[in-house]
Amino acid sequence: MAVAQILNAWVTANKIGWRALVPVVVAFAHWLCSHLVAAKVEQLREQNQVDAKPAFCGYFSSTLQNIRTVKFYAWEDIFGNDSAWSGVRRYKLPMVWRALQFGLDLVGCATAELSAALAITSYISTAGSISYLDVTLLISSIGPLTSFTTTLTGLNRRLTDFKTTKAKLQEFFDADSANYIDRSLATGELAVDLEECVFSWGADTYSLAPIALQIKAGDFVTVVGRVGSGKSSFLSAICGEMPLTGGRGCVYGRIGYVQQKPWIMNGTFRENVLMGADFDEVYFWRVVDACALAADVRQFPKGDLTMIGTNGVNLSGGQKVRLALA
User: Fold this and answer.
1) Model confidence over 254-263: pLDDT tens digits?
2) 237 and 215 in contact (C-beta within 8 Å)?
3) Tens-digit pLDDT profile for residues 118-150
4) CA-to-CA dists, residue 78 to 73, 75, 84, 241, angstroms
5) Residue with more model confidence, 46 or 249
6) Beta bridge pairs of residue 190
7) How many angstroms separate the Cα of 21 from the Cα of each of 13, 26, 248, 253?
8) pLDDT one-digit tens code per residue, 159-213
C-alpha cells in the first residue's frame, strides 16, 4: 500500500508540480477542524451533564440497583410514560455547532473529489491548460492519495487510544501481580499465623501497621477498635483481599466470612442459602434453624422458594445478615 501511495504522489507531482500538496493540505485541514469541533462539542456535553445532572443519578451501581427495583415492582409502564419525564431538561447542541458538524461531515464525504478539483483548478489558473487524459489520471491518483493522508492524520487518535489502553492494562496486571497472604487447606494447631505483616490497599493509600499475631484453631477472638481503625481491613487481609506489602503470613483451613453489608443475590431464599451447592433437605433446615431463620421462612408466601430481590429489598436488616450467615 505504501509503495502504491508513493507512486500516486510521484505521478501527481510530475503532472502538476507543487500543487500535489493540495490534497495533503485539504485532508489535514479537514482533520484539524473536525478534531477541534468534536473536542468543543464534547466539552459542551460534559458541562451540561455537570450542570443538569438529575438529583437521583449517582454511581453506576446505584443506577443499576434502581433499574432492578423498577423491574422487581413492575413499574415499567409508569417510568416508560413520556409524561413522567416532561420536567427533565434535554440538552440540545447549539445550532452553530450542529451546523459546523453537518458541514464537516459533508466535506468529509467528498474530500477526495474536493482535493482533486482544487488541485486541478489551481494548476489551470497558474500554468495553463491540461488535457482530458491528464485530468482523468490526476483524479484517479489524487483520490487514493487523499484517503491515505486522512488515514495518517488519524494515527494520532489511534496512538492516544493505544497509550490509554496500555496504561489500563498495565494497571490491571500490576494489581493482579500483588502479593497476598498465603493460604493452606491443611489444618493444625494454628489457624492464623502473621509475622510482622504489612497490608496496604495501594500506594499512598490506607495501610495497616506491622502485625504479629497467632490464632490457634478453635479460639474465639474478637477485634476491638475505634471507628476507622482498620478492623474491617484486617479481616479483609486475612481473607486474602488486601495486598501484603511486607512480612510473612499464612491462614490455615477454610474461611467463612459475613461482612457488615451482606450481599444477597436476586433468587429464591433456598438459592441464597445453597449458593450453588447440592440440596440436602435435612442439612438445609439444620442450617436455617441454626441461623434463627425458621420462623421467618414460615412467614414467607412460598416458604424457602420465595423470591428474594437483589440486595434483599424485601428483607429486614437482621434477616439479610442471618441469610448471609446461612
Assistant:
1) 888 877 778 8
2) no
3) 777 777 777 777 776 777 777 777 777 777 777
4) 11, 5, 7, 42
5) 249
6) 216
7) 8, 9, 66, 73
8) 878 888 888 888 777 665 668 888 888 888 888 888 888 888 877 777 888 888 8
| Consecutive H or E run containing 108 | helix 95-109
Task: Calculate helix-pair angle for 111-127, 132-153, nearest 10 degrees.
Answer: 130
The whole-angstrom distance between residue 16's C-alpha and the CA centroid of its chain comes to: 51
* Most confident stretch, 64-78, 83-97, 161-175, 294-308: 294-308
**Antiparallel, parallel or unpaired: β 244-252 and 182-184:** parallel
Q: Which residue has the cell 429489598?
A: 313
> What is the β-pairing status of strands 307-308 and 182-184?
unpaired
**What does DSSP assign to residue 106?**
H
Count Cβ neighbours within 10 Å for each residue of 170-196 and write b for 16 or more, e otherwise.
Answer: eeeeeeeeeeebeeeeeeeeebbbbee
Q: What is the mean pLDDT of residues 277-292?
A: 88
What is the per-residue burial (b if ≥16 Cβ within 10 Å, else e) of 36-64? eeeeebeeeeeeeeeeeeeeeeeeeeeee
Helix or strand or coil: residue 29? helix
| pTM listed for this prediction | 0.43
CA distance 70 to 194: 47
Q: What is the DSSP string of 211-279?
A: EEEEEETT--------TTSSHHHHHHHHTT-S-EEEEEEEEES------SS----SEEHHHHHHTTPPP
> Is 302's pLDDT higher than 70?
yes
Can you spell out the DSSP letters for 45-72? Answer: HHHHHHHT--TT---HHHHHHHHHHHHH
Asked if 71 and 8 count as a contact pair (C-beta separation under 8 A), the reply is no
